[in-house]
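Next comes one such specimen:
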Amino acid sequence: MKQKIPPAVVAQFRDYCEAAEAAAEDLAFTMEHLDTTVAVDYSLASLQALDAMIWTFHQRRNFPEELFPFEDFIHLVSQYTGSAVVHQTGGAWSQGDKRQGFMPCIDGFGNSPAERVFPPRLAEMQMIRLAKGNPSPVFAPALADALAIHAKTKP
């Protein structure tokens, strides 16, 4: 039986996907205002650089909050991560089911339902790791895992 998704949740999903589609452009604009350069090209290297940048900003406590809050930057990187998975694997944005709070996810890249990529959850994980002082990267490993899954399904 197909779950009935409330219209407000469907609208939030659509808004999130539109923002994620614009994430690379928004991130490139943001990079112009930071004292660093990251190639915003959906590559694993770009996500590795962004993971490192987030930790550096957190350690130094020097993210320019006049641009927008640091947490918003992390959410932007999570949306870019989702877009990178789509671009690199041919996956598609999908809406999780009720158990996942109807959260936006990436599906259809040769993955099982348990291997979906949930960019909002990645942002939450990053915030928790930063709060605990854990420098482990979040975004690049998500793309690397999706690429590995996708590679297994190719003939």
About this structure: The chain has a mean pLDDT of 92. The chain has one domain: 7-153. The first strand starts at residue 92 and ends at 95.
